[in-house]
Structures are given as structure tokens and as C-alpha cells.
Specification:
The structure holds two protein chains of two kinds. Chain A is built from 13 helices and no strands. Chain A is an all-alpha fold. Chain A has a domain of 174 residues: MetI-like fold (Orthogonal Bundle). The model of chain A has no long low-confidence stretch (mean pLDDT 86). In chain A, helix 10 runs antiparallel to helix 13. Chain B is an alpha/beta fold. Chain B has a domain of 164 residues: Rossmann fold (3-Layer(aba) Sandwich). Chain B has eleven helices and twelve strands. An eight-stranded mixed β-sheet of chain B has the order 6-7-8-3-9-10-12-11, with helices on both faces. In chain B, strand 4 and strand 5 form a beta hairpin. In chain B, helix 4 packs across helix 5, helix 5 crosses helix 7 and helix 7 runs parallel beside helix 8. Classes of the chains: A mainly alpha, B alpha/beta. At the A-B interface, helix 9 and helix 10 of A face helix 2 and helix 4 of B.
Chain lengths: 316, 318
């Protein structure tokens, strides 16, 4: 187990090293941030001074070398735009994104798995067909459309829910205050639709496949009640592929809340990264992508560990 | 009275391509402690007959007609809840492939204890556990206590089939339905498992229905034999009669197919042709296209004949 963890850690360091190099290179080639940072009437002298101050007047190799040295000290550079350490800027925004992703994932699982099971038991019943139709729309309808329709209905027409911002924040999250919850509902719903539909469909397919297995028939032949056969014998088997997908999708959620955050003016990392790319704010972009890759690596690790609990055939 | 009496059982599958008459009017009976072999090719309706007994036919399949009188009750008329009480308790089943008949993510112990706990409501987990260990020892599984905590993938095929058999015997059932219990095992293990089943059914006074395509297996173990072809029984009688004096041409063919030790023929005999599709059965006798004795008389399905306590469906048998 320890060997496995160390191995994993070593791999993730390599992955993050490669990512940092690629992002650093792309941002280096993308353009000169000084043009965007200084007012249009700045003199050539100002430009040269600014470039020297930011350290971007040196060669690529020199810059990357300096970056790596800083990383070794736990410093991912200072944001060109905000003038603060890049890590601090990203971490400040991260809770908002994480809360959105975690809640959306929980919501999708809580509704997706049971609905998938229901749709799998009697695939020809009207309610199964209704569930499958809705899930198809969940998969097909683009997220920005869902978000805007929700805003139109619940903010503009009905005036029930606020259309932007996080509301009152307590202990890094809006989920503990009534005002915060009202702000959370629509972004979480928007973000969940696709995930819910995906989880639902996967659960259904998995269950239908498992229900045809001999061991399910034998469980029934042993006189085990149908309910137990479905929710224990079958579900435990169909959870195995589901966990993988939920893990991957969670990484996706954290990384790609951009659209949802833009619609609801949610002050998370998604909006930050878009702004930073536009401003050519290299330290922020690099720091953000490194953190996201780390989250992906961590999730994969958790999934692997969860596997050993659900599937006895898998041993780490 | 017989323990189980099946009368004119018809199990049909309503598929898009038409009605598949998997079991089309079979009748047989089995006494307490008796062993009945049901023999036939793949698709002859043997397994469906077995599943019908326990009400394990899933849509689009359905038992459309017939009676299954078991211990004074007609199982066809019972509700799902009542059947559930009988399954695994009074009638239990052993499946063909031990590799797939145990749930891969649940321990052997839990899968076994379930059988007891859902039928004996008053029994404690500890008692159930001990009963399982006992029965695992009876079926000859080494280190039974340790095996209770194992998962199926940690056991070999033969060991798994022993577990499945042990599981079927836990509640001391009156009837055991074994669907090709040795087909998926290698030959040395086959003999062990068959011997074990015979021994246990004697020990536990259970009646046994042995479904197999292997007439050699049947001839060793069974008291009675039913030969099925295309959903119907074509010959049914005592083992000695059926094996040593087969009447139906199909039964004769099956026995002819067996390799014989003191035979210098290079090739084994095979019955010409294949079993007709259940969707396109010929008019008259289903076997006529493969039968060397067939003539125009066979264009009508042969009537039931009872010869010397044996039942046979063939015009050519007098």
C-alpha cells in the first residue's frame, strides 16, 4: 500500500511537471501581458521597466528556471494583474468552485442512481420511458441554455431566486446561510443536469446488465426477496463502473465550471481562469492548472482506494 | 402421492419473431427421494422446464398452461410472495456454471447465510453461520470456516460448485433441481460432484431433477429418465428400460452417440441434421426430418403410447 502511494505520488509529480512546462510555454508564446497592463499612453521606458519588474524580459529557459526554483520554495509566482501570490489568488476562489461542484455531484448521485434503478427494473413502463426522455434532454441540452432559462424563469419572471453572486458566505461556503442557499440553487441545478442524466443512464445500463447475470437468478432462486436482490446484490455490482465515472466527472466539474460561473457571475476559479487567460496572467494560469491536475490525481487515488472496498477482486 | 407432479406444462416466450414454445406440454412426476434425469440437446427446453418449476421465468416468457403440483399445492397458481417462501427452502436449484452463479462482490458466508435467514426468521446469525460451516464440511470443502469469509474469485470452479450445492442443501429441501451441474467443470471434478450429489440426495432424502445433455451422466445416477426434444418429452420411463431398450428413434440415436470401449469404429455416430428452430417447427412429428424410419404417417404428431409403464411418442413403436 505504501509502495503504491509513493508510486502514485511520483507519477503525479511528473504529470504536474509536464503540465507546468506546457502551460508555461504556451503562455510565453501567447503574447506580452505588459501591453494589457499599462495604460495606452505609457512610454517605452515604462514598458521596459515593467517587463524587467515582472521578469519577462529574460529568455524562456531563464524564466522557466526561475519558476522552478520558486516552485521548490513553494511559490508559484506573483500574479501580474493582482500583484498577489498566484497560489493565494486561486485558493481564495477555490472554495466557491468546490462547493458548487461538490453540491452538484451530490445532487446528481442522490437523484441519478435511484432514478436509474427505477428505470432499469421495468424498462417498458411509462415512468421509465419518461425518466429516459428527461435524461436524454439532460445530456443534449447545453449548459448555458439551461442556466439562462433558469434565470429567465426563476429570477426574471417569478423573482424567487437571485440571478448572480454567492450571497452571504459563512465558513467558506454559502450552504450555511439561507441567503447563500438561495444563491446556490440555480448554479447547482445547472451544473447537475448533465451529470445527473449521465449517472442515471449509466446506473440503468449497469443494472440491466447485472440483472441478467446468473448470480441474480440464483439469488432469486434462493428465496431472497426481490427488493434485496435489486438494491443489494445487483446494485453493489453496478456501483463498480459508476465509481470510476463519478470520479472522472467530478474532476471535470471542478475544472469546467467556467460556463456556469460565467452565467451566474459566481466568483469561482472558472471565471478567474478565463479572465487570467485574457490578461495573459501567466502565474495564475499555471497555478490554477497545477492545482486542477493535483485534484485530478487525488480523485483518481480516492477512486482506486474506493474500488478496493466495493470490489474484493481489486487489491491495491 | 408423488412429491412433484407436472401436468401438461407449457412455457412460451412471446418474442418479436413469434411465440417460442420452449416447453410445450410436458408431464412427469417424481417421488420422494427419487432422481429424475431430463436429457436433450441445447434448446430442447430442459432448463426452461427447471426454471418453470420455481417460477423463474422472466418476461417475455410465461407459463401459459399446466399444473405443477408440489406437496399438495399448484405452484403455477401461487403468488410471487408464496413462491419466494418455497424457493431455496422446499425447492432449491443448482445452476450450470459455478463461475457465474455466485455474486462476485459478496462473501461466500453471506451468500449462504442469506438462504437460512430469509427462511428461518427466528434463527440467529451465529446459528446460521455454524449451519453453513457444517454443510460446507459435508460437501467436502476444505477449511470451511475460513472459506466463509472468502469471495468467489478466491475459489476454484469445483470448490464454487460445492458451495452452490451446499447452499442448495442448507434448508434440507424436498426437491433439488440441478441444471447441468457439471457441464462447466473438468472431467475429474465432474465425477466427484455427481457422486456427491447422489450421496447427498440420499442422505437428505431429497428428490433430484438432473437436467443434462449428457446421457452417460443420467444413466449412472438416475432412477427415471425423460428425453426432451424441441420442447416436448418424447420418451419417459425407468432408467433401465430407456437406456438398455430405447424405443424412440431419438433416444436410440442419443445412446448410439456414446463412445464405446470395445468398438473399433473410427468415427462416433451422430444423429443427422439439427433440431428444428422452435419458431419453425415442422408439421407432425418434430423429429421426422432426422429420423430414418419416418414416412407419411409421421406428418401427424404421434399420440402418447404407454408401453410397460413407459411413455413414448412415436408412430413406429408398437
Amino acid at each position: 500500500m505504501l509502495k503504491y502511494i509513493l508510486n502514485r505520488l511520483f507519477h503525479s509529480v511528473i504529470v504536474m511537471f509536464v503540465i507546468s512546462f506546457i502551460v508555461f510555454f504556451i503562455m510565453f508564446k501567447a503574447g506580452d501581458p505588459v501591453q494589457l497592463l499599462l495604460p495606452p499612453d505609457a512610454t517605452q521606458q515604462d514598458v521596459i521597466e515593467m517587463r524587467h519588474a515582472l521578469g519577462i524580459d529574460q529568455s524562456f529557459i531563464k524564466q522557466y528556471e526561475a519558476f522552478l526554483k520558486n516552485v521548490a520554495k513553494g511559490n508559484l509566482g506573483t500574479s501580474f494583474v493582482y500583484g498577489q501570490p498566484a497560489l493565494d489568488v486561486v485558493f481564495e476562489r477555490l472554495p466557491a468552485t468546490l462547493e458548487l461542484s461538490v453540491l452538484a455531484m451530490i445532487f446528481s448521485i442522490i437523484f441519478g442512481v435511484p432514478l436509474g434503478i427505477i428505470a432499469s427494473i421495468k424498462p417498458k413502463a411509462w415512468y421509465s420511458k419518461a425518466i429516459m426522455f428527461l435524461s436524454l434532454s439532460g445530456i443534449s441540452v447545453p449548459i448555458f441554455w439551461t442556466g439562462m432559462v433558469l434565470v429567465l424563469v426563476f429570477s426574471v419572471l417569478l423573482g424567487w431566486l437571485p440571478s448572480s453572486g454567492r450571497g452571504e458566505v459563512y465558513l467558506f461556503t454559502s450552504a450555511f446561510t439561507w441567503d447563500g442557499i438561495k444563491h446556490l440553487i440555480m448554479p447547482v441545478l445547472t451544473l447537475s443536469f448533465f451529470q445527473l442524466a449521465l449517472i442515471l443512464r449509466l446506473t440503468r445500463t449497469g443494472m440491466m446488465e447485472v440483472m441478467m447475470q446468473d448470480y441474480i437468478k440464483l439469488a432469486v432462486a434462493k428465496g431472497v426477496p426481490r427488493r434485496v436482490v435489486v438494491y443489494y446484490h445487483a446494485l453493489k455490482n453496478s456501483l463498480i463502473p459508476l465509481i470510476t465515472v463519478i470520479g472522472i466527472q467530478f474532476g471535470q466539474l471542478v475544472a469546467f465550471t467556467i460556463v456556469t460561473e460565467t452565467i451566474f457571475a459566481w466568483p469561482g476559479t472558472g471565471k478567474l481562469i478565463i479572465d487570467s487567460i485574457q490578461n495573459l496572467d501567466r502565474p495564475i494560469v499555471v497555478a490554477y492548472l497545477l492545482i486542477i491536475s493535483f485534484i485530478f490525481v487525488a480523485i483518481n487515488f480516492v477512486v482506486d482506494v474506493l474500488y478496493t472496498f466495493v470490489d474484493p477482486r481489486v487489491r491495491v | 402421492m408423488a412429491l412433484l407432479e407436472v401436468k401438461n406444462l407449457k412455457t412460451y416466450f412471446f418474442t418479436r419473431n413469434g411465440i417460442v414454445k420452449s416447453v410445450d406440454g410436458t408431464s412427469f412426476s417424481i417421488e420422494k427421494g427419487e432422481i429424475l434425469g431430463i436429457v436433450g440437446e441445447s434448446g430442447a427446453g430442459k432448463s426452461i422446464t427447471g426454471f418453470s418449476l420455481l417460477g423463474l421465468i422472466d418476461p417475455p416468457g410465461k407459463i401459459v398452461e399446466g399444473e405443477i403440483n408440489f406437496n399438495g399445492r399448484d405452484l403455477v397458481k401461487l403468488s410471487e410472495d408464496e413462491l419466494q417462501k418455497i424457493r431455496g427452502d422446499e425447492i432449491s436449484m443448482i445452476f450450470q456454471d459455478p463461475q457465474t452463479s455466485l455474486n462476485p462482490v459478496i462473501t461466500i458466508g453471506e451468500q449462504m447465510m442469506e438462504v437460512i435467514l430469509y427462511h428461518r426468521k427466528g434463527m440467529s446469525k451465529k446459528e446460521a453461520f455454524n449451519a453453513c460451516v457444517e454443510i460446507l464440511k459435508t460437501v467436502g470443502l476444505p477449511a470451511a470456516h475460513k472459506r466463509m469469509k472468502s469471495y468467489p474469485h478466491q475459489l476454484s470452479g469445483g470448490m464454487k460448485q460445492r458451495v452452490v450445492i451446499a447452499m442448495a442443501l442448507l434448508n434440507n429441501p424436498k426437491l433439488l433441481v440441478a441444471d447441468e451441474p457439471t457441464t462447466a467443470l473438468d472431467v475429474t471434478i465432474q465425477a466427484q460432484i455427481l457422486y456427491l450429489m447422489k450421496k447427498l440426495s440420499l442422505e437428505f432424502h431429497s428428490a433430484l431433477i438432473l437436467i443434462t445433455h449428457d446421457i452417460a451422466v443420467v444413466s449412472q445416477l438416475c432412477d427415471k429418465i425423460a428425453v426432451m426434444y424441441a420442447g416436448r418429452i418424447v420418451e419417459y420411463g425407468r432408467k433401465e428400460d430407456v437406456i438398455f431398450n430405447p424405443l424412440h428413434p431419438y433416444t436410440k440415436g442419443l445412446i448410439e452417440c456414446l463412445p464405446k470401449l470395445n468398438d473399433d469404429k473410427k468415427r462416433l455416430y451422430q444423429i443427422p441434421g439439427i433440431m428444428p428452430s422452435l419458431l419453425g417447427l415442422p408439421k407432425g412429428c418434430y423429429f421426422k426430418d432426422r429420423c430414418e424410419f419416418a414416412d407419411e404417417q409421421c406428418d401427424v404428431y404421434p399420440p402418447k403410447q404407454e408401453i410397460d409403464k413407459r411413455i413414448v411418442f412415436c408412430h413406429k413403436v408398437k
